[in-house]
Amino acid sequence: MSGLPMVVPAPGLPEKVTIYEVGARDGLQNEKALIPTEVKAEFVRRLVAAGLPVVEATSFVHPKWVPQLADAADLMELLGDSGKDLPVLVPNQRGLDRALELGLRHIAVFGSATETFAAKNLNSTLDDQFAMFAPTVERALAAGVDVRAYVSMCFGDPWEGAVPIEQVVTVGQRLLDLGATQLSLGDTIGVGTAGHVTALVEAFGAAGVGVDRLALHFHDTYGQALSNVQAGLRAGITTYDASAGGLGGCPYAVSATGNLATEDLVWLLDGLGIEHGVDLPSLVATSTWMAEHLGRPSPSAVVRALG
Amino acid sequence: MSGLPMVVPAPGLPEKVTIYEVGARDGLQNEKALIPTEVKAEFVRRLVAAGLPVVEATSFVHPKWVPQLADAADLMELLGDSGKDLPVLVPNQRGLDRALELGLRHIAVFGSATETFAAKNLNSTLDDQFAMFAPTVERALAAGVDVRAYVSMCFGDPWEGAVPIEQVVTVGQRLLDLGATQLSLGDTIGVGTAGHVTALVEAFGAAGVGVDRLALHFHDTYGQALSNVQAGLRAGITTYDASAGGLGGCPYAVSATGNLATEDLVWLLDGLGIEHGVDLPSLVATSTWMAEHLGRPSPSAVVRALG
Fold first, then answer.
1. Is B196–A305 a contact, with Cβ atoms under 8 angstroms apart?
2. Quick one: closest CA in A to B299, which residue?
3. Angle between helices A165-178 and A194-206 (to 10 degrees)
4. Range name among A16-30, A92-106, A240-254, B113-127 with the lowest pLDDT average
5. Which of A192, A234, A275, B134 could disulfide-link to A187, CB 3.0 to 4.6 Å?
6. Can you spell out the DSSP letters for B158-199?
7. Residue A73 CA to chain centroid, in angstroms?
8. Are strands B161-162 and B156-157 parallel, antiparallel or unpaired?
């Protein structure tokens, strides 16, 4: 079907966006299958070759918590110089040591917008997490390493329900105050809707945090991810996290809490005439290849339609 | 998770929308399984009980083409008086005869926005389809029966690619000229994106067809359905077709060309604080029950998350 989607721009949207690809990290850490390191390296190389401008490669979290990414250092060694500009998740000082030893230049830390998730995921409190991140961020910045900060549970929390917008803004501001260059506002359980996205971005704006420092990270648990991207675009956000092939969500699972699929995002951006630099056929081929390694179809609608 | 989605209205959207439920017709006609007539009747009753204001019940199309709905007359007899206000699809004069005999008061006809689909689906041409519909619509109106007109392939066509917006407007206007009270603009292959939706609604407006005469009918083939609803809401459209549980799309199929799931639409509307009258838990229970009859999980994200 040539000429599809038909390109019909909508007024007032950004001309260009940056897709921050999280499939190799956020995607694979939520898949049951253990993927060989060589295959992960090939996956990352193929994502870069498909034109994705930022490809988060892995996480230096303790293997006890995320066995899927226990090979983080091996993967980065395999990638060699070509991996040095790829961001990696770094949960603590020890993770930073490994990243610095490998000569990496971009890290991400992972904070919580809610008390309960801070306790469960970080073994901290909402307040104490900043003191926990501070030395890691400080040392990274001193070494010339750029720091992104994820904020999880920005739209809702499985234990606390709705999360007050002011609370998210406060958490985000404290992470920026530590020195993070970009916040990725995550709808970890996928409950947010379009008006909520707009209100959150506007609340950050009112607090002096412009759209250039914000990224949006949506999960498709309730089918809202792409609608939420549209709200983000209308609010002027130009960076979106997405996962190739929707990695991280199982199409068979009762609660498929997967990431927004990069291909579905690309289809929307293509239709709107918004520049992104990704070659869709290459990306679909890559996700189809990875789905074979995982032994199940991709949850991405576009991959299933075109793959 | 109480209090979710958080209700955050977006300015300028309608306060209330009408969900036009197509699961029993458009959904079941695209499912492989043959559902017993008693089960269909129970399905329709449960959809009405869940608060759906319009439930299209079946189609009087020839059983040779759609064996899944060969029991249309039996179903409507089973529903009795409670079915008389439910719309049914009527492809031709013979179908209308059956609807009139049963005392039904709402029918829908099914047109094409493209030459190729008119040939393949209606065995007609783009131009000749109007002459084909004219006597059916005329007799229906004379009998006091209300007529909705579906227009398929409004955003793209598998053979012709992108469909010119002016062509869709022309087809729609001719169907309204015949006497249809509402047009349902269908993205039959799910390729449309947000800016395209806006442009199509605006083109109808420029041609004198207001938002009160338009409904939008999206398929989720490329994951765009709910994002397209958001564009429709922003353009002022207040009627959306949707299919309970996403019936009509198989979560396992390579090309899952299903309808927008009613539950996913309800989640968006709930988040935006837009009134719709549907009880989500009842609807999810109904779709879960129907998925058991079909022997596979629902493709609706909300049904999978809550069911």
1. no
2. A251
3. 50
4. A240-254
5. A192
6. TTTEE--HHHHHHHHHHHHHHT-SEEEEEETTS---HHHHHH
7. 20
8. antiparallel
pLDDT of residue A257: 64
Helix axes A93-101, A128-142, angle to 10 degrees: 20
Which among B57, B200, B250, B266 is annotated as catalytic?
B250
CB atoms within 10 A of CB B212: 11
Among chain B residues, the shortest Cα distance to A196 is held by B8
| Phi, psi (rounded to 5 degrees) for A232 | -60, -45
Q: What is the dihedral of CA B296, A223, B29, B84, to 10 degrees?
A: 110
Return the CATH superfamily for domain B18-306.
Aldolase class I (3.20.20.70)
Rounded to an integer, the average pLDDT of B253-281 is 89
Distance from the first to the final alpha carbon of chain B? 13
What is the secondary structure of A176-226 as a DSSP string? HHHT-SEEEEEETTS---HHHHHHHHHHHHHTT--GGGEEEEEB-TTS-HH
Q: Is the pLDDT of residue A60 over 80?
A: yes
Whether residue B254 and residue A191 make contact (CB cut-off 8 A), yes or no, is: no
Residue A47 near residue A278 (C-beta atoms within 8 A):
no
Q: How far is B110 from chain A (nearest CA, A)?
A: 23
Chain A residues whose beta carbon lies within 8 Å of the beta carbon of residue B4:
156, 161-162, 191
B residues 177-216 closer than 8 Å to A (CB): 189-196, 198-199
Q: In this structure, is the dihedral angle defined by the CA atoms of residues B194, B196, B202 and B204, taken in order, positive or negative?
A: negative
pLDDT tens across B48-81, in order?
A: 999 999 999 999 998 888 899 999 999 999 999 9
Give the ipTM of the model, two decimals please.
0.96
B253 contact residues in A (CB cutoff 8 A): 304
Mean pLDDT over each residue of chain A, to the nearest integer: 94
SS3 A239: strand
Kindly report the pTM of this predicted structure. Answer: 0.97
Query: Which residue of B198, B221, B272 is in closest CB contact with A194?
Result: B272
- Is B192–A6 a contact, with Cβ atoms under 8 angstroms apart? yes
Q: For CA atoms A217, A222, A224, A225, give the dihedral sign.
A: positive
* CB-based contact A245:A287 (threshold 8 Å): yes
Q: Is B224 on the interface with A (CB under 8 A)?
A: yes
Candidates B196, B268, B305; nearest CB to A193: B268
Give the start-end residues of each E strand in A22-145: 54-55, 58-59, 88-89, 106-112
- Residues of A marked active site are found at 250
pLDDT band at B250 (very low <50, low <70, confident <90, very high): low
